[in-house]
Amino acid sequence: MFESNDFVCRHMQLTKADIVRVIRQKKLSSFTEIQDETDAGTICGTCVADIEEILEEELERRRSNASS
Ligand code: FES
């Protein structure tokens, strides 16, 4: 589990907070969209699974907000 200030994609210098922000602001719902916005995962790719995990958390949060 990442903390907000942890670097998730070291190559693009993206923290969890950066990724969450772009997902929320642009209402992204796929890894490809995140990649288009941030270039995350375009160098070594080791961060892809972590970003997908953060995306899942956000989608889950969005779903539960929508239903409440
Ligand atoms: S850590 Fe994200 S591309 Fe290398």
Describe this structure in words.
It is a single chain. Helices cover 57% and strands 7% of the residues. It has helices at residues 16-26, 31-38, 48-67; strands spanning 7-9, 14-15. A two-stranded antiparallel ribbon has the order 1-2. Helix 1 packs across helix 3 (48-67). The radius of gyration is 11 Å and the shape is globular. Bound molecules: FE2/S2 (inorganic) cluster. The site of FE2/S2 (inorganic) cluster has 12 residues, from loops. It comes from Geofilum rubicundum JCM 15548. This is BFD-like [2Fe-2S]-binding domain-containing protein. It holds the Pfam family Fer2_BFD. Residues 8-57 form the BFD-like [2Fe-2S]-binding domain.
List keywords for this structure.
68 residues, mainly alpha, Arc Repressor Mutant, subunit A, 3 helices, binds FE2/S2 (inorganic) cluster
Quick structural overview:
The protein is mainly α and 68 residues long.
Strands, helices and their partners?
Blueprint: E1 7-9, E2 14-15, H1 16-26, H2 31-38, H3 48-67
Antiparallel strand pairs: 1-2
The chain binds FE2/S2 (inorganic) cluster.
Domain BFD-like [2Fe-2S]-binding: 8-57
InterPro entries: BFD-like_2Fe2S-bd_dom (IPR007419), BFD-like_2Fe2S-bd_dom_sf (IPR041854)
Protein name: BFD-like [2Fe-2S]-binding domain-containing protein
- Proportion of β residues? 5-15%
Shape: globular
Helix content: 55-70%
Number of strands: 2
CATH structural architecture: Orthogonal Bundle
How many structural domains does the protein architecture include? 1
CATH class: Mainly Alpha
- Look at the structure and name the CATH superfamily: BFD-like [2Fe-2S]-binding domain
- Secondary-structure class: mainly alpha
- Helix count equals 3
Distance separating the two termini:
25 Å
Mean pLDDT: 96
According to CATH, the fold-level topology is Arc Repressor Mutant, subunit A
Secondary-structure element order, as H and E?
Answer: EEHHH
Q: Which ligands does the model contain, each kind named once? A: FE2/S2 (inorganic) cluster
Largest beta-sheet details: 2 strands, antiparallel
Parts with pLDDT < 50 across at least 5 consecutive residues: none
Strand order in space, largest sheet = 1-2
Radius of gyration: 11 Å
